[in-house]
């Protein structure tokens, strides 16, 4: 953005300057997604990179490292943050609490600083409509199964009644024939 380019220009023109570019200052994510907080810095000497998260829950230091040296990741973010040499970090499995402002500070060994900010919005995936459809589908499937069972029982009962009626008719017809034969 224009602000990032202006900061980069001012930092490069400063003695021992540090430049920082934030290509994507706004990130929209959904819960459980992985996000990359991408930056690119350059400086003449070694730099220390520090990331902080500021939200309505407070300020938390995420990570701090010196280029080509140690990496210190906060216990809150252990296992969820990956750091990169260019100053970027990847945040795994974001939650609603990860929404907010992410501040990066790049400090050159000569004491020159530059700052960058990324705003992260985290949204929940709302499954209410999907749940409604699933419940209606389950209800209709249950009603269909009950109706099929009821129809099967009715069909069986009808066949049993027809067999008894046919058996009685056959027996009475046979008796009449026998009676007729005997009378002669």
UniProtKB/TrEMBL annotation:
Span-the-membrane segments of this chain are 130-154
The residues covered by the Immunoglobulin domain are 24-123
Question: Key word Signal present in the record?
Answer: yes
Location in the cell: Membrane
What Pfam family does this protein match (any one)?
V-set
What does the entry give for GO biological process?
filopodium assembly; positive regulation of excitatory synapse assembly
Q: Which UniProt keywords apply?
A: Glycoprotein, Membrane, Signal, Transmembrane, Transmembrane helix
Q: Which residues form a coiled coil?
A: none
Gene Ontology cellular component terms for the protein in this record: axon; dendrite; plasma membrane
Q: Where is the signal peptide?
A: 1-20
> What protein name does the entry list?
VSTM5 protein
In its UniProt entry, the species of origin is given as Smutsornis africanus (Double-banded courser)
Question: Quick one: which gene encodes this?
Answer: Vstm5
């Amino acid at each position: 953005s224009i602000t990032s380019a202006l900061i980069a220009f001012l930092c490069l023109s400063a003695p021992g300057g540090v430049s920082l570019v934030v290509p994507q200052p706004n990130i929209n994510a959904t819960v459980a997604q992985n996000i990359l907080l991408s930056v690119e810095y350059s400086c003449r000497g070694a730099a220390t990179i520090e990331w902080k998260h500021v939200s309505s829950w407070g300020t938390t230091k995420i990570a701090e490292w010196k280029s080509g040296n140690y990496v210190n990741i906060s216990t809150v973010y252990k296992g969820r943050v990956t750091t990169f040499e260019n100053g970027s970090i990847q945040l795994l499995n974001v939650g609603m609490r990860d929404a907010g402002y992410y501040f990066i500070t790049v400090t050159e060994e000569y004491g020159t600083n530059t700052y960058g900010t990324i705003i992260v919005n985290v949204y929940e995936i709302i499954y209410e409509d999907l749940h409604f459809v699933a419940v209606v589908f389950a209800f209709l499937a249950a009603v269909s199964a009950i109706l099929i069972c009821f129809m099967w029982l009715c069909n069986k009962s009808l066949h049993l009644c027809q067999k008894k009626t046919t058996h009685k008719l056959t027996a009475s017809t046979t008796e009449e024939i026998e009676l007729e034969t005997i009378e002669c």
